[in-house]
Write a structure and sequence with these properties.
With 306 residues, the protein is mainly beta. It has 4 helices and 18 strands.
C-alpha cells in the first residue's frame, strides 16, 4: 500500500489539543521541569521545524479529551515559517476539522512528520478567512506532492482546526518508518536551528549582533544575539548561540567608542566586547543557513569600545 493511502487511518488515530489544554500542559511541563526524552534518538539531527523564536515542553502523551497527545506543541509567532525537518516529499491534508490545515512530510530517512494547525488567517488577527492553500497555510509556491530540501519552508505557523483561538503553534509529530507516533522531544532538543532560510543558491548577506567569544588572526567566534538576513528581510533575536566566522585579510575591521571610528585588527578584540558583523555576499546552502563553523565570511566587523 502506498503511504498516501494510509492517511485516513492515521487521521482517525490522531489526537489534537482542546481549547485550554495547551496552556495547562505547558504550565504543568514548566512546573515539572524538563523531562527526559522517552523515545529513541535519531541517527542524524533534523532541522528545527520553525524559523525563529519558539517555545515547547515535552507534552507528548499528555492527557487530552480525545486521548494521549501524539505530538509536541511548539509555540511561535503567527505566520512564522514552518521548515522541512529533513529532505523529502510533502502531502497536503485539508479535510480534517480537528487538524485544520495539515501537511505530511515523508522524509528521505523513512520518518514521516506531521505539521498540524497551520495558518488559515489572512491577517495577523484570528479571522479564519484563509484556505488551506499555498501562500496561506503552505509555503508560497509549494505544490502538493513536491520534493523539498531540509530546512526549506513548507508552511506557516497558525491556529487552524481545533486550535482556533489558542496561541499560534505547530503541533509536530514524528512517525519513524511511517508507523506510530513517538515522543519528538529528543528530536527537537538535538535539532539544528537555522539562522535564515532561503532558496538554495540565492544570494544573501547577514547582519549579526553579538559579543566576542574568541578572536584569532583570521577567525572570530561570536555569541550571536540577533541576525538580520537580506534580501529576505528575516530577523531573529535572543539567539545566544556561538558562531565561528572567517575573517579574511580583505575584511574591514573597525573600532568605535560612539563618537569616532578607527581601523583596527581582529586580534585587538577582547572577550565580551560588543560586535556587529556584516557577512560577505554568498549563496544560500544548508551549511550557511545553519551557520556551520567557517561557512560564513566576515566583510565588515565593527567592535564597540566602552
Amino acid at each position: 500500500m502506498r503511504p498516501f493511502e494510509r492517511e485516513p487511518e492515521l487521521m482517525r488515530r490522531h489526537r489534537t489539543i482542546a481549547r485550554g489544554a495547551l496552556f495547562l500542559s505547558l504550565v504543568a511541563g514548566l512546573l515539572a521541569g524538563t523531562a527526559a526524552a522517552r523515545s529513541g534518538d535519531t541517527t542524524k539531527p533534523i532541522v528545527f521545524p520553525i524559523l525563529g523564536a519558539a517555545h515547547y515542553v515535552d507534552d507528548f502523551g499528555a492527557p487530552r479529551p480525545g486521548g494521549p497527545h501524539q505530538g509536541i506543541d511548539i509555540l511561535a509567532a503567527k505566520k512564522s515559517f514552518a521548515l522541512a525537518a529533513e529532505a523529502g516529499k510533502v502531502k497536503f491534508w485539508t479535510t480534517s476539522a480537528s487538524a485544520g490545515c495539515m501537511l505530511y512530510l515523508y522524509g528521505a530517512s523513512g520518518t514521516t512528520y506531521y505539521y498540524i494547525h497551520l495558518n488559515n488567517d489572512l491577517t495577523r488577527g484570528n479571522d479564519n478567512r484563509g484556505k488551506c492553500v499555498a501562500g496561506t497555510a503552505y509555503a508560497t509556491g509549494l505544490k502538493d506532492g513536491a520534493k523539498v530540501g531540509a530546512g526549506q519552508p513548507v508552511g506557516f505557523v497558525g491556529d487552524s482546526g481545533d486550535a482556533d483561538g489558542v496561541h499560534a503553534h505547530l503541533h509536530f509529530e514524528v512517525h519513524p518508518g511511517g508507523g506510530k507516533a513517538v515522543d519528538g522531544y529528543s528530536y527537537l532538543k538535538t535539532a539544528q536551528h537555522l539562522l535564515f532560510s532561503a532558496p538554495r543558491g540565492k544570494p544573501f548577506t547577514l547582519e549579526l549582533d553579538g559579543t566576542v567569544m574568541k578572536p584569532a588572526a583570521l577567525t572570530l567566534q561570536l555569541k550571536v544575539n540577533a541576525v538580520h538576513a537580506w534580501p529576505m528581510g528575516q530577523h531573529q533575536t535572543r539567539l545566544r548561540r556561538p558562531l565561528l566566522l572567517n575573517v579574511p585579510g580583505t575584511a574591514i575591521v573597525q573600532s568605535t567608542n560612539g563618537s569616532s571610528i578607527r581601523k583596527t585588527t581582529i586580534l585587538r578584540a577582547h572577550k565580551g566586547q560588543t560586535a556587529k558583523v556584516w557577512t560577505m555576499p554568498a549563496t544560500a546552502s544548508l551549511k550557511t543557513e545553519r551557520g556551520d563553523d567557517l561557512s560564513l565570511n566576515a566583510g565588515l566587523v565593527l567592535l564597540t569600545t566602552p
